[in-house]
Specification:
- With 274 residues, the chain is of the alpha+beta class.
- It folds into two domains: 43 residues; 227 residues, Alpha-Beta Complex (Cathepsin B, Chain A).
- Helices cover 38% and strands 15% of the residues.
- Strands 1, 2, 3, 4, 5, 6 and 7 form a seven-stranded antiparallel beta sheet that branches.
- The chain is globular and about 85 Å long.
- The protein starts with a helix and ends with a strand.
């Protein structure tokens, strides 16, 4: 018996240590979850009610409008709605570019695909499950590899080309040197805006830091001086709110299969006229 007592004590001490370690791990996990909850609450305060797509779409003229045509291309003047009072939130469905948290390729570089898929579903009035996003990304990657020989980090022109080729019912318009007022105008007409960004400049706390150098967002709404986005780079990306100045500072046409322009750029996807 004397030999068993020290062994029992060691076992009890080991059990106590494991219990403390487990408690500490659970506490840390809970604190991380609570911190994430508060962060998300701060990014999603008092969002406007989501709005569906309408029959009112942009002009189907020139694929890359000149400055002189922009008044017709983005016909809603920001002067009608002061920037500080604008409220729009389009009902663009969300799923992340890594639907099942697998960030290996092709999902690591599937942000362009994910944003196109979300906008296509918006205009179709369709939902978007994780399974559907996963299958559609893989189908779109295969399509690009067979047709173009690459799929990673498409620049604005290449992303617009992909959207029209993969979804023949969509029309893509590229607007270089895009301004915040032009984005607000598109949103006022219930047209979501796809933008290419340097993700390191967004400061999203849910990215694997420092964030993706080449990334895309769907700007789906505006609330005063903030843009409401679907950010496929995180599972918490639905209705993610960024300051307008932060988004505009991050927008740029990066290099893809061919050199980008480096200019601020937006892509407007709309249903083709029937």
């Amino acid at each position: 018996m004397r030999r068993l007592v020290p062994a029992r004590r060691r076992n009890l001490l080991l059990i106590a240590f494991l219990a403390l370690a487990l408690g500490a791990l659970v506490g840390w996990t809970q604190r991380a979850s609570i911190r994430g909850w508060f962060l998300e609450r701060s990014f999603r305060t008092a969002l406007p009610s989501p709005q569906s797509a309408t029959e009112a779409v942009l002009s189907q003229e020139q694929p890359s409008p000149t400055p002189a045509r922009r008044a017709a291309f983005l016909p809603v003047s920001s002067a009608h709605t002061p920037a500080g009072t604008a409220k729009t939130n389009l009902a663009v469905p969300f799923a992340p570019q890594a639907p099942f948290a697998n960030w290996a390729q092709p999902y690591q570089d599937a942000c362009e695909e994910a944003t196109i898929i979300m906008i296509d579903r918006f205009f179709r009035g369709a939902s978007l499950s994780l399974q559907e996003m996963d299958a559609e990304i893989l189908r779109m990657v295969k399509f690009q590899e067979e047709r173009y020989g690459f799929y990673r980090d498409s620049n604005a022109a290449e992303t617009a080309r992909l959207a029209e080729a993969f979804y023949p019912g969509l029309s893509a318009r590229v607007v270089y040197d895009v301004t915040a007022d032009e984005i607000r105008s598109a949103l006022a007409r219930r047209v979501p805006v796809l933008v290419l960004v340097d993700g390191r400049k967004l400061g999203n706390p849910f990215y694997a830091q420092p964030g993706p150098e080449r990334h895309t967002l769907v700007i789906k709404g505006v609330l005063g001086d903030k843009f409401i986005t679907n950010d496929p780079g995180t599972r918490r990306g639905a209705d993610f709110v960024y300051p307008v100045t932060t988004v505009m500072n991050a927008i740029e046409d990066y290099d893809g299969g061919s050199p980008g322009t480096g200019k601020p750029v937006a892509i407007l996807l709309t249903p083709k006229a029937r």
